[in-house]
Amino acid sequence: MAGPPVVIWEREVGRLLRFKDLVPRLEDALGKFSRRDSSEVVQPVRSAVPLQKHNGFMGLMPTYMENDGVLSTKFACFYKRKEGSSLPSVQATVVLLDPEYGNVKAVMDGEVITAMRTAAVSAISAKLLMCPGADVLAILGTGKQALSHYSVFTEMFSFKEVRVWSRTKQGVDRFLDSVGGPVKGCGSVEEAVRGADVIVTVTGSTEPVLFGQWVKPGAHIAAVGACRPDWRELDDELMKNAVVYADSREGAMTESGDVILSGAEVFAELGDVINGTKAAHREKTTVFKSLGMGVEDAVSAKLVFDQWTAQKFHL
């Protein structure tokens, strides 16, 4: 008979989850997802419940991985907060279930999982698509996702220069205080991205902040914010002139304002590149439109649970 579910809090999730373990599992999961084999991954497009009074929405992200015996869902609430608000812009919880019995095995804080799996997938996109010898990384945004992206990008790659921009000087200063390595704070988006080889956009913007005229040919952009059909981070020029990749083609066509409103074509999913069925156009300007997927949460949650179980029973 199944016991009560395990509850794993934010600090514990952060202790158990490591990029070096997570990245290869996510690469494998992205490849499985893009094969569209229902015995590998069953994952509907995220359903969204508007929270109109609070200027947000709740996303529900269920996933079943039959061959791996993983059943999970994530509840994530996203908010468009006013400048200077002390309230969180994202709150998330991941539930892991037993696919045979249907009982809840674990309930875990989803914020660390969301931040780390999102950043790890962006880093996978850079590994696959950025030009060889990339030297300069620019990060637009200074919140939790920006910090998580900084962590994995500097762990996996050797950039000679890292630049960061925020709408506020306080945001830049806070980011610089939080990270260990040398980072250049920039006063404008243009200053941050001119000549950058890799650009990460992790903003709360609903209007374009990154313009194609500032982007060096051959740069790779990991576009992480703007996860609603009417929100933007990138302008039409950039979207139309780049080769666009996504984690999920259906997700991008349903949820990404950058894709929908620009009319850009999604060339491939990252999993297609991993599987060798679509090309990685490293020599061209590339955009990876990240929406986040339930399978990424499922793989991350299983890793956390397995690590927790191993430590619990380790003598």
From TrEMBL:
* One term of GO molecular function: thyroid hormone binding
Q: Which GO cellular component terms are attached?
A: cytoplasm
Q: Which reaction does it catalyse?
A: L-proline + NADP(+) = 1-pyrroline-2-carboxylate + NADPH + H(+); (3R)-1,4-thiomorpholine-3-carboxylate + NADP(+) = 3,4-dehydrothiomorpholine-3-carboxylate + NADPH + 2 H(+); L-proline + NAD(+) = 1-pyrroline-2-carboxylate + NADH + H(+); L-pipecolate + NAD(+) = Delta(1)-piperideine-2-carboxylate + NADH + H(+)
In Pfam terms, one family for this protein is OCD_Mu_crystall
Record EC number: 1.5.1.1, 1.5.1.25
Source species, domain of life = Eukaryota
What SUPFAM superfamilies does this protein map onto? Answer: NAD(P)-binding Rossmann-fold domains
Q: Which InterPro entries match?
A: NAD(P)-bd_dom_sf, ODC_Mu_crystall, ODC_N
Q: Name one GO biological process term.
A: thyroid hormone metabolic process
Tell me which PANTHER family the record gives: KETIMINE REDUCTASE MU-CRYSTALLIN
Quaternary assembly: Homodimer. Binds the thyroid hormone triiodothyronine (T3); T3 binding inhibits enzymatic activity.
Instruction: State the family named in the UniProt similarity comment for this chain.
Output: Belongs to the ornithine cyclodeaminase/mu-crystallin family.
Name of the protein? Ketimine reductase mu-crystallin
